[in-house]
Amino acid sequence: MNKIFSPKILTENSIDAKRNFIAKVTIALCFVLSVGFSIVFFIQKIYPLNIIFAFFSIVYVIAWSMYELKNPLAAKVMLYSAMLAQVFFMAIVLGVFVEIKVFFIPIAIVPLLIFSKKEKVPMYALLILTAVNIVMINTFVHRIYGPEQIYSFETYRNINNAFDITSMLCMVILAFLFLQLTEAGEIELIDANKALSKQKEVELQNNFLLKRAKEDQERMNLMKDHLFRIISHDLRSPINTIHGLTELLISKKLSREEETVITEQLKKSTDSTNQLLDNLLSWSAFQINNASKPNIVEVNIKELINDIFKQLDVKLTQKNISIIEKIDHTIFIQADSSMLEIVIRNIISNAIKFSYQEQVIHVHAEIADRDLVIQVKDSGIGMPKEILDKLFTNDKSVSRAGTYNEKGSGIGLLLCKNLLENCGGKIEAKSIPKQQTIFTIKLPMN
């Protein structure tokens, strides 16, 4: 495809057409001049020149017919050979009294305009023939026919003037045709380059779309594999636990105290499964919609976080964990309320999960450098560097059990990262093993 639309090929084809056009114009010009001079010389009774110009006017007609027969190379060779022969015979008739050499400059230019690169051999052969023609006229013709004066000086002067004007006219026409040929080549080259650039742009765009489609497919495959892994392990495990506990309750062979313990375990398992499903559905929706546009509304941060505390009240009570929050009630942000709730709930749930009995979780929110900054700090088990480095990835190894053996899927923090980045925000984590962990959320105010 690139070869077909190559600027070089397009330009060469167009220039060849121009060369053929110039050759046909030159044939027509030579024919008109030959007929004109034949008539003039007939009127002036200079019959030898009349016969020469009449004869070559017929030759130019034959050269033109070569083009009609789709044989441009033969037409070009006949044209140029006829021009050389015509000048040679004119020199024989006129001798040294007329400057025949004035025709050799336009004649020498013609092959450069009409012959293409593929026609170098005939072009060089005809240029050599031109040089031989000049030598023969200067050496032999002028020596043999030069001294004899056949016509009057006035006749020779008029012929010289006519030939000078004709030569100048031919030079002007050839110069114009040369400029046309050059401009045509430049225009065709520019147009061809534009066409090629446009084609390359389309190819790059198609390649980009193909690459993006491939990346989307790979991402969807990874998501599918991850979902199956979570469903087959993380979701099946608590469901099996719930199933086993309910069978124990149905058996009615338990004491009241044992029933109470099993009921608490059922509550813990259902809460864990519920949070896992929430995260799983949110993360899957985010991946399938490919980071759809957020639904921006005005959110009061203090009210949002207090609502999250209420949602997590059972978990906080189970471990007797206290919350110390420092949030100004005047902090508002333009953000996706659902997205922000999912992120903050996950972070606080994580803090509860990895905190011990009767510990304190600090939640702080402020505006700094046009960003909303939310920090959640716990004094729980912390995490080593190797886990911290993989915390926001799809790596199963970062998933750990909590202080009450709470399970996790490993997608909660990845979901938080994806949701925040979709809104121009980010999340960071710092931790000291067995001492504390601090999560920092940053989100643009606008």
- Low-pLDDT stretches are 1-11
Number of domains: 2
Q: Which outline best applies?
A: rod-shaped
Main structural class = alpha+beta
- Give the biggest beta sheet: 5 strands, mixed
Average per-residue pLDDT, rounded, comes to 81
**Count of alpha/pi helices:** 12
- The strand line-up of the biggest sheet is 2-4-5-7-6
How far apart the termini lie comes to: 49 Å
Binned, the helix content reads 55-70%
**Order of helices and strands, N to C?**
HHHHHHHEHHEEHEEHHEE
* Topology, number of strands: 7
Which helices and strands appear, and what pairs or packs with what?
Layout: H1 7-43, H2 47-68, H3 72-94, H4 104-114, H5 120-145, H6 153-251, H7 256-288, E1 296-300, H8 301-311, H9 313-319, E2 322-327, E3 332-336, H10 337-353, E4 360-368, E5 371-378, H11 385-388, H12 412-422, E6 426-432, E7 436-444
Parallel strand pairs: 2-4
Antiparallel strand pairs: 1-3, 4-5, 5-7, 6-7
Helix pairs in contact: 1-2, 1-3, 1-6, 2-3, 3-4, 3-5, 4-5, 4-6, 6-7, 7-12, 8-10, 10-12
Can you describe this structure in just a few lines?
By secondary structure, the chain is of the alpha+beta class.
